Every structure is written in structure tokens, then in C-alpha cells.
Amino acid sequence: MIGPNTLPLFVAIPLAGAFICPLLGKRVKSAVDAVGIMAVLGVFALSIFAVITLEGRDYSPISVTAGGWPAPYGIQMVLDGLTAFMLVTVNFVALLVAIYSLSYMDRYTSRWKYFTLFLLMLAGMNGVLITGDIFNLFVFLEIASIASYALVAFGTEKHELEAAFRYAVMGSIGSLLILMGITLIYSRASTLNMAHIAQRLQVFGMGRTGLAALVLFVAGFGLKSALVPFHAWLPDAHPSAPAPISAMLSGVLIKSLGVYALARLVFNVLGITPHISSALMALGALSMVVGAILAMNQWDLKRLLAYSSISQIGYIVLGLGVGTPLGILGGLFHLFNHSVFKSLLFLDSGSIEYSVGSRDLREMGGLGKRMRVTSWTTLSASMSISGVPPFAGFWSKLLIIMACIQEKQWVYAIVAVAISIVTLAYFLKVTRFAFLGTVRDTLRGVIEVPAFMRIAMVGLAMVCILGGLLLIPGIREAFLGGAANALSAGVIIPGEMGR
Amino acid sequence: MSGNTGTQGMSLIVKTVTRLTVGLVFLYGVFIVLNGHLSPGGGFSGGVIIGLAFVNLVLAYGRDTASKIATAAGASMIESLGAVMFISIALLGLQWGGFLQNFLPHGTPFHLVSAGTLPLLNIAICLKVGAGMFSIFLALIVLLKFESEVKR
Amino acid sequence: MSSYMPYMLCFVLFCIGIFAVFSKKSLIKIIVGLAISEYAANLFLILVGYKMGGRAPIFSPTETISPDLMVDPLPQALVLTSIVIGLAITAFLVAIAMRLYEKYGTFDVTKIRELRG
């Protein structure tokens, strides 16, 4: 199963694929598709093996060092419950998005450039998830971010270039804040290995340096995950990218780079305190409210979905910020759900754009009869994101609200319920304007999208509907339970790192 | 650079001096790469110097003449080859113990041929960075001139 | 207090760069401001590794210097990586700025405002 020889493959396979694409792409056109799909399929299979391996070991972490140098001299790669959970999420969404883009990217030129950048972004995200070294996290974060800046500008139209410029500048500022935080942590703990940093901070105490580093991390990773007030780049960047890239960005990139890294550093390295907890809850609630209110006014479908992403990230951070095991479980489950249904919604908006040619809700209508697969999958995703039982989203929101009530945070619970109703409202608006009603004359010739796109959308929709099954006690321990325990275990101690 | 120098290069003095010195610049870059494990330098710095040697060639001789030696397609191929070489050495290490394991004999310190796979990794990085710098230069400077000649 | 001066000045340099990013109207000046901030972050990282009276961390076959007298080599390796990342971002932003100039005919940020809401 997954061991010292196969854990680095999560990064090595997409990276090798990304560099083989330019060699093959100019000569054999169809080889690029094959390389891309095989690489993503390979890492998805590996991630399933990772979950199975960990379950067999009763969730003690596996760690591997690069080059055989023992920690703290070498870079350590760690596989624990949270990593396995995130790997399955990221690679599952990446696989279905890659299948979708086989058909969608026919409208664009230079397919080998697209797959090169896509595999680089995936390699960066996997690298962030498996690394146990804080500067290595920064390097992989930058790889994924730069690949995503280039992918946002892929079509080189006016608004895409402008959005990519703004996104790149704000993303770089976020990365610089993270780098300065890393510098402060290094000056306090004199090591870059996460386990050793945790141990030394317990011994020496956080001090003012550690506190400054924590603030810089919240700002930097908050910018990467689009928490309010750092959200300004997201409504411009995510709609302008091609639809499969919007799905990847909104679905997995902001979670892998932003929420996962923040959770890992705050819970496992720096140690969570009541101050950080209330700060995260406040930021989460603010994101929920601002995202939902701004989403109500939108007529551009993809911009509405982008604001909705800001709102749902608020839910995840609220759940994680509560800090109790129930809250962390709810937050992580909502992270998985949001990856699935937000990418499905963006893929749906891509199919609508592919067939209709426009993203404006006022120009659509009556598509429900013409595009059956798209309309049913959008409906299931909308029900899931609004928290309608028995779809998956209902259970995760219920867990978060229950965690807030258990901690006697009545205001946050009421806000969460209210924003859930607002979410239902604007998704009903989408359904009514896009799919119900009479077909316009200009849209009479609209047909359903090609087969690959339909396969991808149906795959994601099934997980939306069946996602509630992940909470059944037997399955819950395997998948979500391991992840939640890894976070609530608190600050890690080197002796337990499984070496 | 005025309108014609993009295609025809610079004056005769510049061309003569470049012809005499570009080989030395290239050799200096190779020296920095090969001594990466003994003295400061290594793949990044040596790669930048080698890339700049090619940039020097294109600037002095103009796009038409220099494109016989230094082409965009060649740079792209060398860049990918460098990266694939790095990944293969890293994955080969899996055979002998670990990812990125140093599996060649280590030799004695301070000699040129020592430290196992480190000189090979340095060469791979040098190929990638040098070809990358040259591609960036071509994409930003040389090809732009071509596009700005096309009216909007 | 005076022993913290280099770090304070690094921070001031970083803030100057961020100020340029947010207040300047030309795309090129925004890119220059971002580059200044990157240099400030790199400088901060090297300064953290400095040791009073330390020597360069290079071993040589002729002299034997104890490693305790050398400055910390790890931040220098980190800065090398960070400089290359900064190079990639600057090249990307300049390429985007040039394409924007072709489409809009100006570098002025207030006129490149097609996205609203």
C-alpha cells in the first residue's frame, strides 16, 4: 500500500506529466489528453489507497523523508488522517474536472499548455497537502498559485487579463505575508519541520514573535482562501477563468491552499487558544453574511457562484473556529461537500455557457426542457448547497449549527441558519431564471452538451446526493473521523510522527 | 532599439565584441554550475548566466540571424528535458532507498567529481532555468515587436 | 532598540512597496511596488540568519573554520528559492501588462475597469 516509496508519487506523477506535455504536445496532439487523464487517474487511485492504508494502521501517521536525511535536516512528508481526507477530495474533483475539460477545451487553442498548467497546479496542491515542512508548504503554495494565475488568463480576452492581473498582485501580497510569518516562526524555533516547531513552541512559549507570525498567517492564508476582508480578488478572478478552471479554483484551490494550511498551522503547530477561536469564528460569520448579501444582487451566473463561494468558506471557517470535535467534523464535512457541489455548479455554468453562449441570467430561460442533464445536476447541487434534507449539504450545516449551539454561541447559530435561507433564495433565483419558464426564440436550437461533460457532471451529482452516507458510523470513522481527530489532537509531538 | 535593430542587430563593434566574448560568458556559466557543490552558485545562478549568454547573442545579431542557433522551439525542448531529467533522478532514488536519495558514490570532499547525484541535479536545474530565461526573453521582447507591427 | 533597526527598516521598505501597489495608477508602477515588497521580504529572511562577526558558510580544503563562527546558511537557501519565485511572478505580470496595453492602449489602471460589481 502507501509507504515510503509511494508517498512522494502524489507530487512526482503530476509534475512528470506536466513536463512531458510540452515535449509531446507539439507533435502528437492527442497524446496530451492521454497523459493528463492518466496522471490524474493515477493520483486519484493513490489517494484511495492512502485512506485504506491509514485505516489499516489505525490512523497513526506515516512519514517519509526526502533524500534519506533525517528530520529536521531533511524535508519530511507526512500522511495522516486529515491529509488523506484532503487528498481524496482534491484528486476526485480534479479527475472529474479533467474529464470535463476534454470536451470543453475544444473551444480554446493550445491544449498542451492547458494540461501542463493544470497538472502543475495539481502537483502544487498535492504538495501542500503532504508536506511536513513549513517552507516546503510555501514553495508548493507558490507553484499552485502561479499556475492558477496563468490559467485564469488562459483565454486572453480583455476581462480575463484584467482579472488575472488583479488576482496575481493580491495573491503575491498574500504569499509575501506568509513568507514573513514563516521567517518569524523560524527566528523563534530555529527549525522548519512542523513537528519540531510545535515542540519548541510548547517549550519556549509563543511570545510576541509567535503572535505576530500568527496574525500574518491569518492574513496571508485568509487572502488565499478569500475570507472577508481579503476577498476582493475572488469575484473578478473566478468568473473570468474557463469553466473547468473556475471549478478547480473555487472547489479545491482555495481550500487546499487556504483553509487546509491555516487549519494545519493553527491547530497542529501553533496551538489553538480561545482568542484565535473567536477571531476565526468572527471572520467566518462575516464572510457568510457579506458573501450571501452580495450574491443576491448578481445577474451574472458565475459571479453569483463566486460570491456564494465566499459565503460557504465562511461556514467552513466558522465550523473549524468553534474548535470542538463536533465543530471540526462539521467544518471538514462541509469542506468536502462544498468542493463537490461548487465544482458541479461551475461545471454546470460552463455547460450553459457552452450551449447558450452567455452567462447573464436575464438572457436565459426555459433551458430545463432542452438540457436535461444540466438542469437536474444543477438542481441537486442547489438543494445540497442550500441545506435541504436529505442532500449532503444539510448534514454538514446541521453539524456546524449544532456545534455552535453546544458552545452557547447563539448569535453565530442564528446567523448560520439565516444565511442558509438566503442561499436557498438566490439559488431558487438561478433555477427560475435559467431553467424554468418558456424557451426564448434565440435559444430554440440549444442542445445538451457532449458526453464527457455529462459524465463529469453526473459523477459529481451522485456524490452530492449520496454524501450524507458519509456520516453513517462505520464509514464516518474511516474518512471524516480520521481527519477530525488529526486536527483535534492538538499540537503534534515528534515521537508520535510514526517514524 | 529603433525599428530595424530587432531584425538586423546592432552595430559592427557590438557584433565583433559579442563574437569574441559570448563563448567566455557561456564557459563561466558552465563553471558555476559544475562547481555548485564546492563553492557558491549551482544550478540557478549558472543557468541564469547561460540563459543571458543566449540573450546577448539575440540582442547583438538580431532575430533573423540568431534564430539559426537559438530558437524558441529548441528552448522549450531543453526546458522540458531538464525538468524530466530532474524528476527521473528523483524517482530513480526510490530504487535505492528514498525519494531524491543520493545513490551515486559520494567520493572525496572538495573534488570536482563527488557528492553523488548533486552535480547531475545542478545540471538539470541549469538547463531548465537557462532555457526558461531565454524563453521569457523571447516571449516578452522579440515576439512583442512582431505583434506591435500588426495594427489593431 | 537599536539592534532591531535593520528589521524595522525592512518592514518600512515592505510598507513602501505595498503603498505603491495600492496607490499608483500605472500598471508598471504597481509591478515595481510588488518587486520592492518582495525584496524587503527576502532581506528580512537573510537578516534573521545573521550572526555578529560571522563568516560565510563555505567549507574550504585549506582553512578549517568552526561552524559556530559561520552565519546561518539555511535562510540563504530559502532566499534563493524565493528570488526565483519572485522572478516568475514579475515575468508573468509584465507579460499580462503588455497584453493589456495592446488591448486597451494605455497602462492606466483607472481606465482598465471592465469588471464591475
Please specify the SSE layout and strand pairing.
The complex is a heterotrimer of chains A (499), B (152) and C (117).
Chain A: H1 9-25, H2 31-56, E1 62-65, E2 76-79, H3 81-104, H4 111-130, H5 134-152, H6 158-189, H7 194-204, H8 207-224, H9 234-240, H10 243-270, H11 274-296, H12 301-322, H13 325-356, H14 367-370, H15 372-386, H16 392-406, H17 410-434, H18 451-466, H19 473-488
Antiparallel strand pairs in A: 1-2
Helix pairs in contact in A: 1-2, 1-4, 2-3, 2-4, 3-4, 3-10, 3-13, 3-18, 3-19, 4-5, 4-10, 5-6, 5-10, 6-7, 6-8, 6-9, 7-10, 8-10, 9-10, 9-12, 10-12, 10-13, 11-12, 11-17, 12-13, 12-16, 12-17, 13-15, 13-16, 13-18, 13-19, 15-17, 15-18, 16-17
Chain B: H1 5-8, H2 12-34, H3 43-66, H4 72-92, H5 118-148
Helix pairs in contact in B: 2-3, 3-5, 4-5
Chain C: H1 5-23, H2 27-48, H3 74-104
Helix pairs in contact in C: 1-2, 2-3
Summarize this structure briefly.
With 499 residues, chain A is mainly alpha-helical. Chain A has a domain of 220 residues.
Structural summary, described in words:
The complex is a heterotrimer of chains A (499), B (152) and C (117). Chain A has a two-stranded antiparallel ribbon. With 499 residues, chain A is mainly α. The mean pLDDT of chain A is 86. Chain A has a domain at 272-491. Chain A has helices spanning 9-25, 31-56, 81-104, 111-130, 134-152, 158-189, 194-204, 207-224, 234-240, 243-270, 274-296, 301-322, 325-356, 367-370, 372-386, 392-406, 410-434, 451-466, 473-488, and strands at residues 62-65, 76-79. With 152 residues, chain B is mostly helical. Chain B has one domain (5-148). Chain C has one domain (2-59, 70-104): Helix Hairpins (Orthogonal Bundle), CATH 1.10.287. In chain C, helix 1 (5-23) packs antiparallel against helix 2 and helix 2 runs antiparallel to helix 3. Chains in contact: A-B, A-C, B-C. Chain A binds chain C through residues 135, 139, 142, 146, 149-150, 153, 156, 158-159, 161-165, 168-169, 172-173, 175-176, 179-180, 183, 186-187, 192, 235-236, 240, 297-298, 300, 303, and chain C through 14, 18, 21, 27, 30, 34, 37-38, 41, 44-45, 48, 74-75, 78, 81-82, 85, 88-89, 92-93, 96-97, 99-100, 103-104, 112-115, 117.
